[in-house]
Amino acid sequence: MSLVFHWGGPRHGEVDDVAPDQLASSVLVYDGPHWFGVYERFQPVQVRDTPSGPAEVWVVRE
What we know:
The protein is built from no helices and six strands. It is mainly β. A hairpin with a 7-residue loop joins β1 and β2.
């Protein structure tokens, strides 16, 4: 699993464990009962320290 730090959108500030195969694409899509969110890798790649460990920053795609 890889840690992803969300910047902006409905998941702003949240850190998720994401399976490596989900990171093969340039976007992450979340489809939940109350919201919909699309995130993309921040360029250039950035990593933030979180309580769960280092997490790659992904930003909301508008």
